[in-house]
Design a protein that fits this description.
heterodimer, A: alpha+beta, PmbA/TldD fold, 3 domains, 7-stranded antiparallel beta sheet, 9 helices, 20 strands, 23% helix, globular, B: 478 residues, 2 domains, 7-stranded mixed beta sheet, 6-stranded antiparallel beta sheet, 10 helices
Chain lengths: 448, 478
């Protein structure tokens, strides 16, 4: 880590020397291991270390950024010089600049982002987990006839940030995942699905056998899927599909979307934007959270920010820049794009679970749709218009009756959020954005 | 051009002897095949927003990926440092997938060569042009969009370019290098009226330099188009729900082909029998009006390449001829295992990714109908002009693509514009429903991005105006 910190400080130093009034440097170094197994044999094995430096400079209120994987001194020096030259050619921007020094992280809390146990998990064991996940999916049901494989991935990332205001911080994190992707077949055709478990800690990963079995169950239940007639019915989203809707809420409450007015949540602070059972939070301080970090990617301490409380919009999420644009303060959501510039990013952004078991929610529906996969990009977070392809299970008299596909659901996110009339107790994290099962009172299904 | 003009030899000292050494090391445990992919990439991006130049960015990325294939197994490792010891280490790591011992045999690497026919010769690489000229283009677009209509409240324009140098050598004798330019211009507008907000987008680009932003792709034209779409959407009515006759305009709606059939014909899925198209070669999958190709050899197009990312020349591959399925898109591994000819479709996002079969420029050949006649022939249906993106489930064959500009057709005439809606269909059957094909084939404007297995690459699509007898439209108006 010291090596990375030195590199970051040197680049900041050179930038200051060459005329930058402010500068910050973000470095991420990652060790990665990835194996896929297909039909019992290793298909690909990939192992690597990679690194990436992102620089941001200010000349007064003008800014430019750069990014490189080449850490050779000659390349870094010329990149610093060119970044400063570019900054001189951009415009004065009143809201520009590093975070105020008072806003910068002091003590760095231990959020339990690193599991030292991974060191004892050998490459052979990792390959074995991928193999066992796939094998369990293949064995589960005779209709599982093929597979896109089983996989295991591991990553150990180190993050370093330094700026010309004297801030210098670092943290690291580990993460592993195991996945199975079986293919089921019947006379009507083929269906695929997957299940995965993702965790920073090895002993929190679901056993590969369980991952494989759940994946197989999910694929088999799609066999024979058909279309249904165009209608308007209650729609239940499982946690994996519900989290995409929570993701749209993130996009709409990100400060940079709000100041650009490209959000259906513009001018809605303090207003009711969702049903009163809806509470959404962005919590960067979740112990062991997949989206947790002690400080954001411009050095501001992270926090837990209420987004929606009992249906009322409480806060937008901010980087230093978007906060200045909107007369607010950073919520510690500054995130560095691949290009090096700062955007607003989520930490652990999730819908708080309710009390109902998902089965109870399904039982409450006489005729409706249980959504298990959404495809396509038909979501407009500016207007809220929503139209996506669906794979699901049709509900008849409170029971999952038969699989459906080649249909769409449509509505508007504003109405959808206000129409959430049940929330499950099954909050599931497969990434930093997460949700439990949710039920929406009514949506239009387009089919035959 | 001689290899000594290559950035890899000039700036990094990678010699032909080094390449031999690395390949030997990669085959040191008896792999059947090895290849090495060197990449050096420079990108610039500039963003104009709220009438000021918000930021400018430069990125420099260098890396080398080593792949070893043993039977159906692939070992892969990469290094971001071209230092000899680190490349050798990556080669040893990748070699680990094979398990016997070998000295790599009598391996001989020829000096890398460039293509005889460069598809993207430019007078001056965009990354060698100062950012002032690019800023001027952004300002021109911003002015045009704001002048278009007072309801245009926000304009964001961005310029992105790339110069990618690649050097590819393989143990079976390929040894090539290439310099691949790519430019792109984006305009996004937000229109507001009575509390309603809508957005519009238009972009353009290709494997070229700044001279591409003339004529149809000049900044003002792109800006006017983005602004027009945003304004149009303010007055759009709810889209219909249900199955109906649909006319797709020419150009970018070719995304239909990319999703509905292109991905399903990528050889890896067919080799593994996980594609809804598996085993359909030689069968009728489309109306006889349909001939679909993937052509990586069109000059200056976004999806074009002199060589694919495994060093094989790109080509024009017929996928569907008069309705009959003719071929798959192959990479090295699948072509070997399927004993099928290479098609030059092995592509990767960058040095840290394994190449897989991908599309280049995918389009349908022109038919004979006049586009006006196609619209006139529809009693009640939808005319879709612009699309956001699409997605496909390879295994079930179901695909979607989302219209961002569409109109109702009533009694052969275009009437009200409708809000965005997703269209959903079945890949292996949708082209059987094509009942008219226009004489107006057009490729898109050069903004396509295709994602597969976490790797994104630039592609192009194209289509003449076509009529589909029936497809499901995902609106809210029953």
């Amino acid at each position: 880590m010291q090596r990375l910190k030195d590199a970051a400080n040197q680049v900041v130093h050179r930038a200051s020397l060459k005329g930058a009034t402010e500068a910050d440097v973000f470095i991420r170094e990652e060790e990665k291991f990835s194996v896929t197994v297909r039909l019992g044999e290793v298909e690909t094995l990939k192992e690597s270390a990679s690194r990436n430096l992102r620089l941001r400079v200010f000349i007064g209120k003008k800014t430019a950024t750069s990014q490189t994987s080449d850490f050779s001194p000659a390349v870094l020096d010329s990149l610093v010089d060119e970044t400063i030259q570019m900054a001189r050619l951009t415009s004065d921007d009143e809201s520009g600049g590093l975070p105020e020094s008072t806003a910068v992280a002091g003590d760095i809390p231990d959020l339990e982002l690193v599991d030292p146990e991974w060191k004892h998990f050998t490459p052979e064991q990792r390959i074995d987990w991928a193999r066992r996940a796939e094998a369990a999916s293949m064995k589960f049901d005779s209709r599982i006839t093929n597979s896109e494989g089983g996989a295991f991935d591991f990553e150990h990332a180190r993050t370093v940030l330094a700026n010309s205001g004297g801030f210098s911080g670092e943290y690291e994190g580990t993460g592993g995942s195991v996945i199975a992707m079986p293919v089921a077949r019947s006379a009507e055709g083929m269906q695929r699905d997957y299940w995965a478990s993702v965790s920073r800690f090895r002993n929190e990963l679901e056993a590969p056998e369980s991952v494989g079995q759940r994946a197989a169950q999910r694929a088999v239940r799609r066999l024979g899927a058909r279309k249904v007639r165009t209608c308007e019915v209650p729609v239940i989203f499982d946690p994996l599909t519900a989290r995409t809707i929570v993701g749209h809420v993130f996009q709409a409450c990100a400060g940079d979307a709000v100041y650009r007015r490209s959000s259906f949540l513009v001018e809605k602070l303090g207003s009711k934007v969702a049903a009163s059972n809806v509470t959404i939070v962005d919590n960067a301080r979740l112990k062991r959270g997949l989206g947790s970090s002690p400080f954001d990617e411009e050095g501001v301490p992270t926090q837990s920010t209420p987004i929606v409380e009992n249906g009322v919009l409480q806060n937008y999420l901010h980087s230093t820049y978007s906060a200045r644009k909107l007369g607010s303060r950073s919520t510690g959501n500054g995130s560095r794009a691949a290009s090096g510039s700062i955007m607003v990013g989520p930490t652990n952004f999730y819908l708080e679970p309710g009390t109902s078991a998902p089965e109870e929610i399904i039982e409450s529906v006489k005729s409706g749709l249980y959504v298990i996969e959404l495809i396509g990009h038909g979501v407009n977070t500016v207007s809220g218009d929503y139209s996506r392809g669906v794979v699901g299970l049709w509900i008849e008299n409170g029971k999952l009756a038969f699989p459906v596909q080649e249909i769409t659901i449509a509505g508007n996110l504003r109405d959808m959020l206000n129409d959430v009339d049940a929330i499950g107790n099954d909050l599931t994290f497969l990434g930093p954005i997460a949700s439990p099962t949710i039920k929406i009172r009514q949506m239009v299904i387009s089919g035959e | 051009m001689e290899f000594n003009k290559s950035i890899f030899l000039e700036s990094y000292g990678v010699s032909t002897q080094d390449l031999e050494l690395y390949l030997r090391e990669a085959l040191g445990r008896g792999g059947d095949y090895a290849d090495i992919y060197f990449e050096h990439k420079i990108n610039y991006s500039i963003v104009l927003e709220e009438q000021i130049i918000k930021t400018a960015t430069k990125a420099v990325n260098v890396g080398v990926g080593v792949r070893v294939i043993s039977g159906e197994k692939t070992g892969y490792a990469y290094s971001e440092d071209l230092d000899r010891q680190l490349v050798l280490k990556a080669a040893r790591t990748a070699a680990f997938i094979a398990s016997s011992s070998s000295d790599g045999g009598k391996l001989k690497v020829n000096a890398p060569r460039v293509s005889d026919h460069n598809l993207y010769t430019v007078p001056l690489l965009s990354t060698d042009i100062g950012i002032q000229e690019k800023i001027a283009l952004l300002r021109e677009a911003d002015h045009a969009a704001r002048a278009f209509d007072p309801r245009i409240q926000q304009v964001q324009t961005s310029y992105l370019d790339e110069t990618k140098h690649v050097l590819i050598v393989s143990s079976d004798g390929r040894s090539v290098w290439d310099v691949q330019p790519l430019v792109r211009f984006n305009v996004s507008c937000i229109a507001e009226e009575n509390g309603k907000r809508q957005s519009g987008y238009q972009g353009g680009g290709g494997r070229s330099s700044l001279e591409i932003f003339r004529d149809d792709l000049n900044p003002a034209a792109l800006a006017n188009e983005a602004a027009r779409q945003a304004i149009l959407q303010l007055g759009a009515i709810e889209a219909p729900a249900g199955t109906m006759e649909v006319v797709l305009a020419n150009g970018w709606p070719g995304i239909l082909l990319h999703e509905a059939i292109g991905h399903g014909l990528e050889a890896d899925f067919n080799r593994k029998q996980t594609s809804a198209f598996s085993g359909l070669l030689g069968q009728t999958v489309a109306s006889e009006l349909c001939t679909v190709v993937d052509d990586g050899t069109i000059p200056f197009r976004r999806g074009s390449l002199n060589f694919d990312d495994e060093g094989n020349p790109t080509q024009n591959t017929v996928l569907i001829e008069n309705g009959v399925l003719k071929g798959y898109l192959q990479d090295h591994l699948s072509s070997k295992l399927m004993k099928a000819p290479l098609t030059g479709n092995g592509r990767r996002q960058s040095y840290d990714n394994i190449p897989i079969p991908r599309m280049t420029n995918t389009f349908m050949m022109a038919g004979e109908s006049a586009p006006e006649d196609i619209i006139r022939s529809v009693k009640k249906g939808l005319y879709a002009v612009h699309f956001g993106g699409g997605q496909v489930d390879i295994t079930s064959g179901k695909f979607v693509f989302s219209a961002s500009e569409a109109y109702l057709i009533e009694d052969g005439k275009l009437t009200a514009p409708v809000k965005g809606a997703t269209l959903i269909g079945d890949g292996p059957t949708v082209l059987r429903e094509v009942t008219m094909v226009g004489n107006d084939l057009k490729l898109d404007q050069g903004v396509g991005i295709c994602g597969k297995e976490g790797q994104t690459i630039p592609v192009s699509v194209g289509l003449p105006t076509i009529k589909i007898r029936e497809i499901t439209v995902g609106g809210t108006e029953k």
